[in-house]
Amino acid sequence: MEQYEHTCMIRGDGGRAIRGILDRICDKWTMLIVATLDEGRMRFTHLHQHIPGISQRMLTLTLRNLERDGLVSRTAYAEVPPRVEYALTDRGKSLIPPALALARWAIEHSNDIQASRDTYDTQDG
Amino acid sequence: MEQYEHTCMIRGDGGRAIRGILDRICDKWTMLIVATLDEGRMRFTHLHQHIPGISQRMLTLTLRNLERDGLVSRTAYAEVPPRVEYALTDRGKSLIPPALALARWAIEHSNDIQASRDTYDTQDG
DNA sequence: GAGGCTACTTACGGTTCGTAACCATCGGGA
DNA sequence: TCCCGATGGTTACGAACCGTAAGTAGCCTC
């Protein structure tokens, strides 16, 4: 129970604060953007090309949220054509180890999970 | 780039497999359910009471997905009133360390992130 | 025989997401 | 002069997802 107090129910707000953070961190694209930016500062188009499946819209929205949370910095250069660079802040970099831990878990268990899904889906539906 | 290959772009499917796993793990409730079940096997109602804010509907749906992925086992007893117990499988337990790492990060940075959000929101909107 | 316990399921309205198209700016070429 | 392309978005719209609240099934108690 003690560990759990530190992960979910912390400090009597019913875990609302923590859930607010986890909801943002654990959405569809945040992890991938953070992991990609770990390589260094990057332009919008470069991010778009390197994160398979993301749309411009979701890239924009997720980057804005990351900027709002102080995890990513946005630098716009007054050039033509425009240039905007994104980079992890120190706080953003501190997210990398736990994010990678989770990603590694996903990779390690990806085959087994897929197999479980297939079994589950073919049983009856 | 090498680390990234192992987190996002792995094995030429454009990262689709990994994203499929991460999308499921990183949804709104999965982490909290897994963290809660770390305490031991639990009944539906107990889970419902201990995860602040979750609805019966989302608890049912998320548990079903966890079962499908082989992370949670479901045991129904033919009693009246009905009794259904959920527990982490070994695979589910293996998710605990990375999940806790992420939760700890969220807790450590929760205040700073909230402050950043407030600043961002009051700047102009 | 009305109501409660448990574990769901369903209906429905609102939010979020994905796709695709559009926009603004400026330089360069015809 | 006019159109094109590059870049970094924004907008429109239909589909998918989520939360709220109510309903369901079986048996027990009052």
TrEMBL record, chains A, B:
SUPFAM superfamilies found in the cross-reference section: Winged helix' DNA-binding domain
Alphabetic keyword roster: DNA-binding, Transcription, Transcription regulation
Domain HTH hxlR-type intervals: 8-114
InterPro entries for the chain: HTH_HxlR, WH-like_DNA-bd_sf, WH_DNA-bd_sf
GO molecular function: DNA binding
Gene3D superfamilies: Winged helix-like DNA-binding domain superfamily/Winged helix DNA-binding domain (1.10.10.10)
Protein name per the record: Transcriptional regulator
Keyword Membrane attached: no
